[in-house]
Amino acid sequence: MNAKKINLHQLRNEEHYQFMTEFRDSVTQFNAQTLNIAEGFAQLQTLYAQELEALQVVRKSATTEQLTIADAERDALFRGFDDSVKSLLNHFDPAKQQAAARLREVLDQYGNIARKTYDEETAAIGKLLVEATGALAADIATLGLTDWIAELDRRNQAFDALMKSRYAETSARTELRMREVRLEIDAKYRAITDRLDALMIINGDATYEPFVRELNARVDRYNDIIAQRRGRNAKDDSNTLGSVKQQPYPVIFKTESRWRTPSARLANHTLWPSAVKANPPLGYDARGFMPPLLSGLQLPSIISLQRQPNYR
């Protein structure tokens, strides 16, 4: 019996970490000392911890997107508040008109808060909130804008907390990179499985067979995941290829922007799939020639696809 092989580099980060987690748990269950792989397993444990650390850094990188969303929501709320004040300038009640005018004067001093940088906007809104809950509190209440101020305060604090978490994340980053850690732990995993294979040759299968059988079942499952993903990718490629074959003229790489006359042979620019060779487009033969009869026509180069099918 031998330990089955797996292309660990083809696993995605989360899948790879899960595979190593299951492998670690299985070794712990069967006992690394009994399997005679204690030294290598201890080294793998260290690398496993580093992989988790690197994975957490990758996961936290989503903070940037969260900041963008939180800032957009905060901007939208501030604009709504600002528009409400503008509208109240035309209120039929003179007292509310005056209150809106006083509030408008203060807002104009801040300018367009939504266009400031993250930190500048957070500071500006914080200062505005101090005024809104202090000197302007009576006007805010008169205008019925207390809820707006409370919500603006909540979103500004939420954004500030998210921003601080980003700073904490940046300061806590190590020099670990997922790719580097994975390469190291993959090498250690292969060393352990190679040792198991050698031990089974020297000592026989009895001690190792239950562990290796379970490991092979796990490897089969993850190899299936890789194969299924490869199959989906191949299907996507075939769909793209199929759409290319339906073109009424051969696929041409766009090596230059000028028009080509179809009377010239396009051998250096044309990729003929076998299916197209068997049934060439109207006006072409299987070699990529167009008869002189149609040489007066013009045919544009086709922009190459982002993922070019390999017909060769």
Describe the structure.
The protein is mainly α. Helix content is 64%, strand content 1%. The protein has helices spanning 13-30, 38-60, 63-88, 94-110, 118-132, 137-143, 146-172, 178-203, 209-245, 274-278; strands at residues 251-252, 270-271. Strands 1-2 form a two-stranded antiparallel ribbon. The radius of gyration is 33 Å and the shape is rod-shaped. 18% of the residues are buried.
Number of strands: 2
Indicate the percent of residues in helices.
55-70%
Distance between the termini: 40 Å
Mind telling me the C-alpha Rg? 33 Å
H/E topology pattern: HHHHHHHHHEEH
- Major sheet details: 2 strands, antiparallel
Summary of the model, kept short:
The protein has 312 residues and is mainly α.
Set out the fold topology.
Layout: H1 13-30, H2 38-60, H3 63-88, H4 94-110, H5 118-132, H6 137-143, H7 146-172, H8 178-203, H9 209-245, E1 251-252, E2 270-271, H10 274-278
Antiparallel strand pairs: 1-2
Which key terms come to mind for this protein?
single chain; 312 residues; mainly alpha; two-stranded antiparallel ribbon; 10 helices; 2 strands; 64% helix; 1% strand; rod-shaped; disordered C terminus
